[in-house]
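Long-time lurker, first post. I've been practising inverse folding by hand and with some scripts of my own, and I keep getting stuck on stretches where the structure tokens seem ambiguous. Below is the full token string for one chain I'm working on. Before anyone asks, I'm not after the true native sequence, just a reasonable design that respects the backbone. If someone could post their per-position residues I'd love to compare against what I wrote down in my notebook.
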């Protein structure tokens, strides 16, 4: 199974693609989609749309896993990220690719074994689980790989229960 993990954002969208087969992970690619603050909102969303479509066309994932949004205070940022997240979900849905969402707690639990793990613990586990030489950079790409790993660990249960699917 090819899994595209996404850490949604507006300035930076983390993207990580892994293959999961027989309880083994194989990293395929990871990167970040970036937009500049000086760009108009519509152009930023179009950049995200075009770049995620390129990833979907190039890697042909069987499933997309995306982190749920969590915001404490900044409504303006929350709205922008929600718009970008919508673009990401629609891109996969237009291709008939199932989309699953996971909370930060679920991702940390699946990757580090502890739902309150800090960012560095999760990054080190991503490096270890994927047998990488270094922690993926930028951090958003490491986060996206963690989302993909979370789905791999959850996929059997999700398929049976139909949970976490958008």
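-- Answer (accepted) --
I ran through it position by position. Result:
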């Amino acid at each position: 199974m090819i899994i595209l993990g996404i850490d949604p954002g507006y300035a930076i969208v983390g993207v990580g693609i892994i293959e999961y087969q027989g309880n083994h992970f194989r990293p395929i690619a990871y990167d970040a989609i970036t937009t500049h603050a000086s760009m108009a909102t519509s152009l930023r969303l179009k950049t995200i749309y075009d770049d995620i479509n390129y990833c979907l066309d190039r890697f042909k994932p069987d499933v997309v896993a995306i982190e749920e949004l969590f915001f404490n205070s900044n409504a303006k940022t929350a709205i922008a990220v929600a718009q970008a997240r919508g673009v990401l979900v629609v891109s996969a849905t237009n291709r008939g690719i199932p989309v699953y969402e996971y909370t930060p707690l679920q991702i940390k639990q699946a990757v580090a074994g502890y739902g309150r793990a800090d960012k560095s613990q999760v990054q080190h586990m991503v490096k270890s689980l994927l047998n990488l030489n270094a922690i993926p950079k930028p951090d958003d790409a490491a986060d996206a790989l963690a989302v993909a790993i979370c789905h791999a660990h959850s996929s059997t249960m999700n398929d049976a229960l139909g949970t976490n699917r958008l």
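A couple of notes from the structure itself: The chain has five helices and five strands. The longest helix spans residues 139-161. Happy to go over any region you disagree with.
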